[in-house]
UniProtKB/TrEMBL annotation:
It comes from Streptococcus suis. Pfam families: DNA_alkylation. It comes from the Bacteria. InterPro entries: ARM-type_fold (IPR016024), DNA_alkylation (IPR014825). This is DNA alkylation repair enzyme. The lineage of its organism: Bacteria, Bacillati, Bacillota, Bacilli, Lactobacillales. CDD domains: AlkD_like.
Amino acid sequence: MTEMNTILTQLEAASHAGTLKRYEKIGETKPYYGVPMGAISGIAKAYKNRLDLFAPLWQTGVLEAQYLAIQIAKNKPDQLTLEDLENCLDEQVSVNVLDKLASIILSKRKDSRDWEETLLAQKPAIFQRLGWFLRAKYFAGNSASNQEIEETLDHIHQHLQTADPLIQWTMNQCLVEIAVAYPNYLEQGLAIGQELAVYADMKVPKGCTSAYAPDWIEALLRRK
């Protein structure tokens, strides 16, 4: 049995009925085994920093194998090749997996701003979604110029309400990050959120925070 077959067997053996049911309910991208994230993290410990496994795991197309690839590489994101990462950017891949790739790998790389620009220049909504996530992370770093902030707020003001739902989520996140990280733009961020009212009617479980920008901003400020 090859090492890749061994890993896939480990993942399949960790399948959990509750996770399978949840994936079926949300219409998660197939194929998947239904492995909880905690179990994937546990398996990843045995293959820590094995960057040679990243591409083969991703190419299986199995949801959990792709999550595992990200976990294995998370401590050395800059050592992944551009080719490996470009091959990950496929519209057929789960949105949740690509979100994780952006969060754990792309945002931690030294060239994250290059990835931001590259992704925002792509036509598919899923890639623009990732680009806006990286832009939000950049603004959260509290190093943006006033011009960058003002141009971005103007763009959000014009496009957030009508953006594709995939893009809307991370564009809204960018609005929130700006308002929280830059006190001089807090009032403007709140005003844009109130005016556009995106996610204003979102129903959230007790104890969770709505994605409605004014609520999200206030929740983050309370934690500061």
